[in-house]
Amino acid sequence: MSSNSPIIHIVDDDSSVGLSIARLLESVGYRATSFPSGQAYLSSDDCGLASCVILDMRMPQMSGLQLQEELLRRYPEIAIVFLTGYGTIPMTVNAIRAGAIDCLEKPFSEHQLLESVSRAIAKYKLCCNKLYEQVELKNRLKSLTSREREVFALVVQGKPNKKIGVELFISEKTVKIHRGRVMEKMCADSLPALVRMADLLALPV
């Protein structure tokens, strides 16, 4: 098993279920650890290190849905797969709406679980890449002057240079200079690329 293998955490109050799932995941190359409760997991030093967390829907004291809410508050990029023995449709709907990858009804097949875990890891990687890109873009945004930020905001709204100049009380030539600097500092090779950056930064477009 490689140290670069994805980490999977299982939270289930039935220790036999948690251990059997961990063994299955380890048999295909994942690093897996099981926890007996939501409280035990949240207090563990390993909490937040997993690419995917497999949660039992119904657990005493802290339910799977409650644990999902807390995990997503702390680690928004984490991917979650639910297991349920007798979950209700509203519970399943709430879990999926909150971002869960899947809700598997016990007994489930090994293939079902591994397929869900694979999709969860793919989602986790996409989220991590997006978060990394956002950090990079925020650093680039900090390099812009206040005037360049104003031009940036108006450019991604699709306004032409002449209109931007009127709104900012500067010449069209000056707008073009600022626009060129924005493109250079943001490492954008086209207007669509700049618009996408604004979207990732949650800037008004």
Characterise the protein shown here.
The protein has 205 residues and is α/β, with parallel strands linked by helices. It has two domains: 7-131, Response regulator (Rossmann fold), CATH 3.40.50.2300; 143-200, Winged helix-like DNA-binding domain superfamily/Winged helix DNA-binding domain (Arc Repressor Mutant, subunit A, Orthogonal Bundle). 55% of the residues lie in helices and 12% in strands. The chain contains nine helices and five strands. The protein has a five-stranded parallel sheet, sandwiched between helices. Strand 4 (79-84), helix 4 and strand 5 form a beta-alpha-beta unit. It is elongated and about 70 Å long.
CATH superfamily label of the largest domain: Response regulator
Order of helices and strands: EHEHEHEHEHHHHH
Judging from the principal axes of the Cα atoms, what is the shape?
elongated
Which ranges are low-confidence, i.e. pLDDT below 50, for 5 or more consecutive residues? Answer: none
Give the helix tally.
9
The fraction of residues in strands falls at 5-15%
Mean pLDDT: 92
Q: Radius of gyration, rounded? A: 23 Å
CATH first level of the largest domain: which class? Alpha Beta
In the CATH hierarchy, the third-tier topology of the largest domain is known as Rossmann fold
Residue share in helices? 55-70%
Distance between the termini: 46 Å
* SSE-based structural type: alpha/beta
State the domain count. Answer: 2
**Based on the structure given, which CATH architecture of the largest domain is correct?**
3-Layer(aba) Sandwich
